Amino acid sequence: MTLCVQDLTIDIAGRRVVDGVSFEVADGQRLGLIGESGSGKSLTALAVLGLLPETATAGGSIRWNDRELIGMPDRELAGIRGDEIGIVFQEPRTALNPIRTVGRQIAEAIRIHEHIGARAARQRAIVEAARVHLPDPEHIVDRYPHQLSGGQRQRVAIAMALACRPRLLIADEPTTALDVTIQAEILELLHSLVDDDGMSLVFITHDLAVLSQIATHGVVLEHGRVVEQAPVPTLLTAPASPITQGLLRDATATLWKPEGRA
Predict the structure, then answer these.
(1) Where in the numbering of this chain does the ABC transporter domain appear (predicted)?
(2) Which residue segment(s) compose the domain that 21 sits in?
C-alpha cells in the first residue's frame, strides 16, 4: 500500500500553515518528516488521519491505497485508523486515558476492528505488551498509566498503534519526551517492529540524528513548505537547504560534546 500526499494545504483560522506539501511513501519505506517547531510536520501527519483541529481546513490530495482521504466521511476514516494506519503521539501521558487500564487501551482497537470479546481481547493485549517488551505483561496490562514509567507508557502507545498490524505507522516525535537511554531503546524497538511487520513508516522529528537511526529518506519542512527531499545519507553529508544545514549542525552538536561538558 502506498501513501501519496500531493499539494497538501492546511489553513487554520484563515492562515495557511501548510502550503503545497507533496511526498510519497512506498510500501515498506521508512520516511522522515523533519523540521523545526512550527514547520507543519505534525499537522501534515494529522491530516492523513483526519485528526486536524476543527478550525483547520485541508486541501490538495492524500491518497492511501488509491482512496482519497481528504473529505472522506469520518465513519470511513475510523475504519482506517488503527487498522490500516496506526499513529504514536509524542507524549504518552496525554495520549493515554488515565482512568482505564493499559490493557483495555491496548485492546480497544482490536475489539473495534476485529469484533472479539473482552476475554480474548485481554489475552491479545498481553501478547502485544510482550511484543513491545513491557515487563511482566500478564500483570502490567492491569495497571494504569500513572503506575508506569515514561518509557513504559510509550511502549503501551506503540502497542496500541500496532495491535491490528497496520500497513503504515505514523510516529510523531515519539522519543522527544524521553531521556537519551530510553530514547535509544524506543528507536530500536520501532525499527525492529517495522522490519518484522514489513510496514511503512512516517517518522516525525526535529532531530536529524534521530532521523538517521530510523528512516531511509527525509522530507525537510520549513514554514509549512517542503524545502528539500533526499535520502537520509545525503541530508547528512550534503544538505542543500540552509534549514537542513542548521539541523545538521544541531545534530552534530548533540552527538559530540567537548570533554568535561554536560
Answers:
(1) 3-248
(2) 3-84+166-255
